[in-house]
# Entry
Amino acid sequence: GAGVSQSPRYKVAKRGQDVALRCDPISGHVSLFWYQQALGQGPEFLTYFQNEAQLDKSGLPSDRFFAERPEGSVSTLKIQRTQQEDSAVYLCASSLASGASVGEQYFGPGTRLTVT
Amino acid sequence: DAKTTQPNSMESNEEEPVHLPCNHSTISGTDYIHWYRQLPSQGPEYVIHGLTSNVNNRMASLAIAEDRKSSTLILHRATLRDAAVYYCIREANAGGTSYGKLTFGQGTILTVHP
# Structure
């Protein structure tokens, strides 16, 4: 079966442009997470969805970051007015379960965003 | 702080066992310990997780100290494909429920020599 897919795999944006990053989780997975990984660092949590509900957005670095999952499957992470410090790999992960420790999270390959 | 403490790097020889240590001295009784690994240009890959008892699966074993302040990931026979960054992650589980938010640290870079 297909794993988590993300598109595009690479994105170059000029400073000030808006970008949209897409995540297709594994079918039927309830939980969906977005993480940001700067070069040489571990991933940092951005936000969490349980089906279509965004239950935690505490990791979003500013109000320029917005995520949605309107039908409880595909999710989009949008970054408005990109800045150079937004350059990173954006990872999406999904998990079948929700509630008490969701266990294994399946990560996508990530989208590498470079802001010039 | 929810992050764990791991050595920056370790080395091993192929087909030898590898013991990757992790300290989580501030762990609470309901926090899970997860291990993920990440190969270059890939997303993290789940390895194993546990709460109190030692755990085994096809990839590795997880040994959790009796006081739960530390744990060790054991790769029984390292292969070249095991070379990766290994993350020990404490999943905060306050109130008995958690949705799986993972707090990654810097991880341990494992080098496997042929």
